[in-house]
Design a protein that fits this description.
heterodimer, A: Rossmann fold, 2 domains, four-stranded antiparallel sheet, 10 strands, B: mainly alpha
């Protein structure tokens, strides 16, 4: 689904070098690397917000650069690391905004849009908050709501920037398990950046690791051990 | 009550109130004019009939002007608040009106005869609003804080005000008087024969706005998410500022700079409707804006026998406390 070929990623200065990475639909990967290693930059390169310094990103075999905004919005959803909620914006309306790529010129939601949005809300057990203002939800609920919006966007690819950063331990674990389930059940290609190495190992999530020394992005077919991750990603010997 | 029923109920009440206010406003002048004179003044106008003349040349234009100016300024305010994601934005406080004032002052008092015509005044006011609209747009790209943007807008206003004063100091008494009258803000300057132009530009702007609803709705998610949902942010910014500037420029040309309406009304509307949906807010804000100006101007009309209050006295008395309230509630 996502392929990066001979990619050099960064703003002006190269942060990550990628020979060839392929992420299939139905798979989930955790993007792990030290602060400043370029996790967010890589995600921004995959959403098309910044261009590669070299090489290319292919989305469903098409060069990302040649994909129009409208088509791209039906291929890639993105979840920011925090959503602080908005007064008077009810959860259902928030999730419905994820349907924007499919609505008419005036943004009117059809019955089908509502069905899809509510299905995404149910997926996370948020039904009882449908009419609650997003500003009144807890951090954990809001993060789930943000992912529900990405699901409602109905894209084959979902990228998440540190979705667990502002959550407590229980919510982190639940969220990662939920993402894994969604990837396989809905055959989505999910990539999320995170510092929760232990949780990813526990949940058996494959890792994309930014090697601190060589700036290479490492994708291993087997699950990486914690020792490997700490050594290559963080220069730590455990 | 479900939110859908609630919106319908509110729209029904507001529309009814608007109709009522329109009638009260029409009939609340010093001279009593009956309904048939109003009808005749439009359908079979007789110049020699004083009642009809007053109805046609004063009452009707003034009522329509209140309707359009209230709705238009509030809509402009809503657009700016949504675009900048800032409840403290509005065409007056962010200096868009000031742009119109500066350009009108320069053209009126530095004496280009073209600019004394209707078309000239309209054009200068709109161009001034557009220029200042883009200045504030550029500032908004660098300033993240809501209050900071408000301060920049106010400073822009002070700065421009100083230039206008300097122009005034060097001008003849007659030109000065015309300009000073204009800056007081008034709904009485529009003539009957100017209404078609006013209506045309107003409705053009409203129709353009309908096409901005969808991306503006998404903006509540933040600029980044809006772009990822496939919207072109640059185009959205430029179009929104253009529509805002056209609305506030035209209204400023006809009525002079009117303070605070654009800031206060959208905030009141949001509190009443309790939604962020631009579909609802767009029409709600326009209704509320018309109601607000009709209400204020009816009071002014009723007091006219005793004393003449400028419009801005009222809008400021109501508007300024609302700003303080928002700052305390949202920022503290």
């Amino acid at each position: 689904m996502i392929e990066i070929r001979d990619g050099k990623i960064g703003y002006k200065k190269v942060l990550i070098q990628i020979e060839n990475i392929q992420l299939q639909s139905g798979s989930i990967h955790a993007l792990i690397g030290a602060n400043g290693a370029g996790k967010s930059t890589l995600l921004s390169s995959l959403t098309g917000e910044i261009e590669l310094l070299d090489g290319e990103v292919l989305i469903a075999q098409k060069n990302l650069k040649t994909i129009s905004d409208r088509v791209r919005s039906r291929l890639i959803a993105f979840v920011e690391s925090s959503f602080s909620g908005v007064e008077f914006l009810a959860l259902e309306d928030y999730v419905l905004l994820g349907r924007s790529p499919y609505t008419d010129t005036f943004g009117r939601n059809t019955r089908e849009d509502k069905r899809i949005a509510n299905e995404a809300i149910s997926l996370f057990g948020l039904d009882k908050y449908r009419n609650t203002y997003t500003s009144k939800l807890s951090d954990g609920e809001r993060q789930l709501a943000a992912i529900a919006r990405a699901i409602a966007q109905d894209t084959p690819i979902i990228l998440l920037d540190e979705p667990t950063a502002f959550l407590d331990y229980g919510n982190r674990k639940r969220l990662i398990a939920e993402l894994k389930k969604i990837a396989s059940e809905k055959t989505k290609c999910i990539l999320f950046s995170t510092h929760d190495i232990e949780l990813c190992i526990e949940e058996q999530i494959p890792v994309l690791l930014i090697d601190q020394e060589t700036q290479q992005l490492i994708q291993s077919n087997e699950l990486m051990s914690k020792t490997d991750i700490l050594l290559k990603g963080f220069n730590l010997i455990s | 009550m479900s939110s859908k029923n609630r919106y319908s109920f509110l729209f029904l009440v507001l529309s009814f109130a608007l109709l009522l206010f329109m009638l009260v406003h029409l009939f609340s002048g010093q001279l009593e004019i009956n309904l048939s004179d109003f009808c005749k003044s439009i359908l079979e106008f007789d110049k020699s009939n004083t009642s009809q003349l007053i109805a046609r040349e004063f009452r009707i234009p003034r009522m329509i002007t209140a309707l359009l100016a209230g709705a238009g300024l509030s809509l402009a305010g809503l657009l700016m608040q949504t675009l900048f994601n800032n409840p403290l934005a509005g065409p007056y406080v962010l200096g868009i009106n000031t742009g119109s004032s500066l350009f009108v002052a320069a053209s009126m008092m530095l004496g280009f005869s073209f600019f004394i015509t209707d078309a000239g005044l309209l054009l200068t006011a709109v161009v001034g609003a557009i220029v200042f609209g883009f200045i504030i747009l550029v500032f908004s790209l660098f300033v993240r804080s809501h209050v900071a943007l408000l301060l920049i807008g106010l400073m822009l206003g002070s700065f421009t005000g100083a230039i206008i004063t300097a122009i005034q100091a060097t001008t003849s008494a007659q030109q000065l008087k015309a300009f000073t009258m204009w800056t007081m803000g008034s709904l009485q300057q529009t003539r009957f024969d100017q209404l078609p132009v006013f209506l045309f530009i107003f409705f053009t702007a409203v129709i353009l706005t309908l096409f901005l609803i969808k991306p503006l709705n998404a903006l509540v998610l933040g600029e980044r998410s809006t772009e990822i949902l496939g919207f072109n942010l640059k185009r959205l910014r430029v179009l929104t500022i253009l529509v805002t500037a056209i609305l506030s420029g035209v209204i400023t040309a006809f009525c002079g700079p009117i303070a605070f309406v654009g800031l206060a009304v959208p905030n009141m509307t949001k509190m009443l409707f309790k939604t962020t949906s631009q579909h609802i807010l767009l029409f709600g804000t326009m209704l509320m804006g018309s109601l607000f100006l009709l209400f204020v101007d009816t009071i002014i009309q009723l007091c006219e026998n005793h004393f003449l209050l400028p419009l801005n006295v009222f809008t400021s008395i109501i508007g300024a406390p609302i700003i303080i309230f928002i700052i305390i509630k949202r920022m503290a």
